[in-house]
Amino acid sequence: MAFSLLFTLGLVFAGPAHAGGVLTHNNNTNNYNNNNKSNNNNNTDNNNNNKLSLHWAPFTFNAGTVCSVDAGICHSWLHMVLMATPSDGNVVQSLVGGGRFKIDETALQDGRSLTFERHLVIGACSRTNRSDCLYLGPSQKYDFGWESQTQMPLTDDGVPSLPDGLPKSFCLEPWMVAGALGVRGSVATLPLTCVDFRAPELV
């Protein structure tokens, strides 16, 4: 092998601060539907015997807004984690991914690249319930993140207030290409998946 394998295969354990779900997630209720796991990998092309599939990492979706009255700024963020699983178990091959996203009721637009988290895993479990696990086989772990800053308007008394138009939901439609298997084959996708933002927090 041309380079040293520096990663240890293992399970991803997501903390309670990232409690979430698959396909549609509400941060206020932390409702994860295990029945959606069957929809989590319906995403490979059929043109290659060695297929690539994508899977959401359960319990990892997180979206929120924190507003600083002193700074007069609101910071909004979104974090989603997924795993890419080649059917032949070759997790050291080159993968390239991205996604289309929309915020609230806006149109879908192309987003940034998926970020490789430098983890090789075999699945994901909830840290609060390690008996609830999704086993996939050797996989690469990726995330998609988004963030924005919004200035807080001042009231007539000069006090910063919550701005209109803070994000309420974020939807992502990810894709991944396995370069080593050929660009025309091995394209994996997941259906549009949405995360609800928690109510803004004032600090």
Structural notes for this entry:
With 203 residues, this protein is mainly beta. It has one domain: Immunoglobulin-like, CATH 2.60.40. The chain is 0% helix and 49% strand. It is built from no helices and 13 strands. The protein has strands at residues 10-14, 24-26, 52-56, 62-68, 73-86, 95-103, 109-110, 115-126, 129-151, 169-178, 187-189, 193-196, 201-202. The strands form 2 sheets. Strands 1, 3, 4, 5, 8, 9 and 13 form a 7-stranded mixed sheet that branches. Strands 2, 6, 7, 10, 11 and 12 form a 6-stranded mixed sheet that branches. Strand 6 (95-103) and strand 7 form a beta hairpin. The protein is elongated. It starts with 9 loop residues before the first strand and ends with a strand. Residues 1-8, 13-39 and 44-48 have low confidence and may be disordered.
Could you tell me the CATH topology label. Immunoglobulin-like
* Unreliably modeled segments: 1-8, 13-39, 44-48
CATH architecture: Sandwich
Helical percent range?
under 10%
Major beta-sheet overview: 7 strands, mixed
Total domains: 1
Q: Proportion of β residues?
A: over 45%
Describe the global form.
elongated
Average pLDDT score: 78
Rounded Rg:
19 Å
What is the number of helices?
0
Order of helices and strands: EEEEEEEEEEEEE
What is the CATH first-level class name?
A: Mainly Beta
SS class: mainly beta
| End-to-end CA span | 51 Å
Strand count: 13
Keywords: Signal
Signal peptide: 1-19
Region (Disordered): 26-49
